[in-house]
Design brief:
By secondary structure, the chain is an alpha+beta fold. The protein folds into three domains: about 80 residues, no CATH class; about 200 residues, Immunoglobulin-like (Sandwich), CATH 2.60.40; about 40 residues. Helices cover about 25% and strands about 30% of the residues. A hairpin with a 2-residue loop joins strand 7 and strand 8. About 20% of the residues have low confidence.
Length: about 375
C-alpha cells in the first residue's frame, strides 16, 4: 500500500522541496536589488533541514552551494563577496550626473589647490642659482628738487664658466596703497652700458608689480666677470609727511636668484639729510643694518652688515626737511587685479553680474525639476 500523503514538511515529495529551495534561492538572489533593507533575510527552515539531511556527515560543502546534482545558490548572511559586488543604486538620475561631474573636476581642482599652495609661499623665497654670483651691487641715488630720482646702478657679476646672455634687473614699481588703489612709480630707463661705457642691448617689460630690464644680447653668450651699468629715472617715489619728506627705497629688489657679496647705496639730496634708517633681509624683515656707512651734509651711504643671500634685500630710508623739495604727490591707479574694486564704481556691471547669477540659478533649478527628480516620484 502506498504511503499516505502528508502536507507537513517531511511529507512533501522531494521534487517539490527542491523546487521550493530553488525558488527561495532565486528570491534571495533578486531581493537585494529590489529591497536593500531585506538583503540578508533569514534562510528558510525547510531548506536548512533539507540540506542537513541530504549533506550527511561528509565534508563541509562549499559556501553557498548544496551538495548534489541539483546544486542551489543560497544567500548566506556572511556572504561578504555578494555584499561587495552589489553596487549602490542611484536614487535619482541627477545622482549619476553629479557623480560624473565630481569625477571630472576632481583632478583640476586638486591641481589648482597645489598651484595656490605654491603661490602662497613667501615672496622672498627665490630658487638659488649657485653657478654665478653678484660680486658688487652699488646704487647712486640723486634726489632732484622736483622730487624725482635719478639712479645709476653698477652691477658686477661673475658668471664663472657658465654661458649666459646677461642679467635680469627687476625693480618693484607697484605697491598696495588702499583697498581700491595701487601706488605706481614711473620708471624710465636711460641707458645700459658696460664698464667701458659701451652700449649693451636691453629690453624693458612689465612683470606684475615689477619693471623688468633684460640686459644682454640674445645672440651672444658671455662668461666670467662682467660689469653692467644701468641708468634710469623715477617719478612718484618720494613720500610727503606733515613735518618732512622721505625716500623709502628698495635698493636691489628681492628677485636675485644668486647671492650678492657686497651691496651699497649712496643718497644725494639738495639739502641736508636729517633722518636715516636701513633694513636688510627677506621681504617684510625688520632687521636693521648700520644706519650709515658714511654721512655728510647732503649725502649718506648705506650698506648691509653681511653678504646678502638669494632673495634678501637692502632698503634705505632718508628724511629731508619739509620744503627742501617740491611737494611729493603719489601716483595712484585703480587696482584692476581686484575684480570687486574694478566693478565697484560701475553699477551697470554689478547689476549685469547679479542678473547673470540669478539666471544661472534659475536654469539649474529648472534642469533639476524636469530631469533630476528622485526616481521614487515616478
Amino acid at each position: 500500500m502506498a504511503a499516505p500523503h502528508h502536507e507537513g514538511a517531511w511529507g512533501r515529495p522531494l521534487e517539490r522541496v527542491r523546487r521550493r529551495a530553488h525558488d527561495d534561492a532565486r528570491s534571495d538572489d533578486l531581493e537585494p536589488l529590489a529591497r536593500a533593507h531585506a538583503r540578508h533575510r533569514a534562510r528558510d527552515a525547510v531548506l536548512d533541514d533539507h540540506r542537513r539531511r541530504r549533506g550527511g556527515s561528509g565534508p563541509a560543502p562549499a559556501e553557498g552551494i548544496r551538495p548534489g546534482s541539483g546544486a542551489v545558490v543560497v544567500d548566506r548572511p556572511d556572504d561578504d563577496h555578494r555584499r561587495v559586488r552589489l553596487p549602490h543604486l542611484p536614487r535619482a538620475r541627477h545622482d549619476l550626473r553629479v557623480g560624473a561631474l565630481i569625477r571630472t573636476v576632481r583632478r583640476p581642482v586638486l591641481l589648482a589647490v597645489a598651484a595656490l599652495a605654491l603661490l602662497a609661499l613667501p615672496a622672498g623665497l627665490v630658487a638659488a642659482d649657485e653657478s654665478w654670483v653678484v660680486d658688487r651691487f652699488v646704487a647712486d641715488i640723486t634726489i632732484h628738487p622736483d622730487a624725482s630720482l635719478h639712479i645709476v646702478e653698477t652691477i658686477d657679476v661673475d658668471f664663472g664658466s657658465s654661458q649666459r646672455h646677461g642679467i635680469f634687473r627687476d625693480i618693484p614699481v607697484r605697491y598696495h596703497y588702499d583697498d581700491t588703489h595701487v601706488r605706481v612709480y614711473r620708471l624710465t630707463v636711460g641707458s645700459v652700458t658696460d664698464a667701458s661705457d659701451r652700449a649693451i642691448p636691453y629690453e624693458v617689460t612689465d612683470q606684475g608689480g615689477y619693471r623688468e630690464i633684460k640686459v644682454g644680447d640674445a645672440n651672444v653668450l658671455v662668461s666670467g666677470r662682467r660689469s653692467y651699468r644701468i641708468s634710469y629715472d623715477v617719478v612718484g617715489a618720494m613720500n610727503a609727511f606733515a613735518d618732512r619728506d622721505e625716500l623709502f627705497w628698495n635698493v636691489n629688489g628681492g628677485s636675485w636668484p644668486v647671492a650678492t657679496t657686497l651691496a651699497m647705496a649712496t643718497v644725494h639730496a639738495p639739502v641736508g639729510i636729517d633722518r636715516l634708517a636701513c633694513y636688510q633681509g627677506l621681504a617684510g624683515a625688520t632687521n636693521t643694518c648700520p644706519t650709515a656707512l658714511s654721512a655728510s651734509k647732503d649725502s649718506a651711504t648705506f650698506g648691509p652688515s653681511h653678504r646678502l643671500a638669494s632673495g634678501e634685500q637692502l632698503t634705505l630710508v632718508a628724511g629731508l626737511a619739509k620744503g627742501a623739495i617740491a611737494e611729493p604727490m603719489p601716483i595712484l591707479e585703480r587696482d584692476t587685479d581686484n575684480a570687486l574694486t574694478f566693478i565697484e564704481p560701475q553699477p551697470a556691471y554689478l547689476a549685469l553680474a547679479v542678473a547673470l547669477l540669478v539666471g544661472a540659478l534659475a536654469i539649474l533649478f529648472w534642469r533639476w525639476y524636469t530631469a533630476g527628480r528622485d526616481l521614487r516620484d515616478r
